[in-house]
Amino acid sequence: MTSVSSETRPFRAADLGTLALLAWMARNEVGDGRTPCLLACSLGDGPDGPDAASAAVARLCADMGLPVGGEPVDGTSRPSLKVSMLVVAGQIVLQMPGVSSQVTPPAEWVSAVQELGYAYFMFTTRICPSTGPRRPATGETLAAFAGAPETTNAAAHLYLPARGLRV
Predict the structure, then answer these.
(1) Are 33 and 27 in contact (CB under 8 A)?
(2) Do the strands 84-88 and 91-96 form a parallel or antiparallel pair, or are they unpaired?
(3) How far apart are CA 20 and CA 55, in angstroms?
(4) How far apart are CA 45 and CA 122, in angstroms?
(5) Each residue's pLDDT expressed in tens, for the chain with a length of 167 residues
(6) Sign of the CA dihedral 66, 58, 138, 147?
(7) pLDDT of residue 167
(8) What is the rounded CA–CA span in Å between residue 167 and residue 29?
């Protein structure tokens, strides 16, 4: 007889598969009406497939104290955050326990995050559509994914402080 353990296995970075980052500007009601946003999601190409990748995102969020589907966490007032964003030389480097990823955002994104000091970060358990190994979808498909309620409702939300290199 086989039994299935209900115990959650520990987070393994490999379970995430490829981590995609998407940076864009969103409209809002405050300031100049533009907020830099950053979405992190798995392509679901980890060794155990999309379901395991989604579960790995959920485990990592829980380990970092970020509730999936909850209200945004104000990371600007939490120096002990286990996720950080370095913005340097026009690049974003996102670091979480056991995971690091980077992307080149639009120039207006970099300017906005330097002015505000933070970005609105979402880490979704929903798997990103892809066009092949290690290739996230682009254009309208990716925009529709990022803006879908299914994506945002399955995400941890965080006002993530931007850090730069100290000289």
Answers:
(1) yes
(2) antiparallel
(3) 16
(4) 20
(5) 444 444 556 778 889 999 999 998 987 666 566 899 999 999 999 999 999 999 999 999 999 999 999 899 999 998 889 999 999 989 999 999 999 999 999 999 999 999 999 999 999 999 998 766 677 777 888 888 988 999 999 999 999 999 986 54
(6) negative
(7) 41
(8) 35
Give me the residue label for tokens 């120039």.
107
- The two structure tokens encoding residue 55: 């579960």
Tokens 């060794």 found at: 47
Q: What is the DSSP string of 30-95?
A: STTSEEEEEEEEE-S-STTHHHHHHHHHHHHHHHTT--BTSPPEEGGG-TT-S-EEEEETTEEEEE
Q: Looking at the chain, how many residues does it have? A: 167
Q: CB under 8 Å to 149, separation ≥6 — which residues? A: none
Q: Which residues contact 163 (CB under 8 A, 6 or more apart)?
A: 84, 85, 86, 87
pLDDT of residue 164: 81
Instruction: Please give the pLDDT value at position 3.
Output: 47
The vertex-69 CA angle with 77 and 154, nearest 5°, equals 125
Residue in the block written with tokens 């296995």: 9
